Amino acid sequence: MNEEEKDAQTESAPKRLLRSDDDRMLAGVAGGLADYFGLDPIIFRIAFGVSVLFGGLGLVVYLALTLFVPLDDGSEHPQAIAQRSNWTALLAIGFLLLIAIPAIGGGLIWGDGPGSLFWIAVPIAAAVAAWAVVRDRGGWRGGGKTLGAVLLALLAATVFASLALTAALLTAVGEGVAVAVGLSIAGVLLIALAVLGLGRWLILPVAAIALGASAAAASDFDLEGGIGERTYQPAGFSEIPADGYQLGIGELVIDLRDIEWAGRTLELDARLGMGEAVIAVPERVCVTGDAEARVGEMAVAGQRLEGVDLELPDRAAPKAGPALELDASLDVGALRVVNDDAVDVLRERGGGANSLDDNVLRERNTEACSR
Amino acid sequence: MSRRSPDLVGLAAGIAAVALGGLLALDRDGAITLGAGWIAVAACAAAGVVLVTSGLMDRRD
Question: Cβ contacts (< 8 Å) between A193 and chain B: which residues?
Answer without folding.
Answer: 7, 10
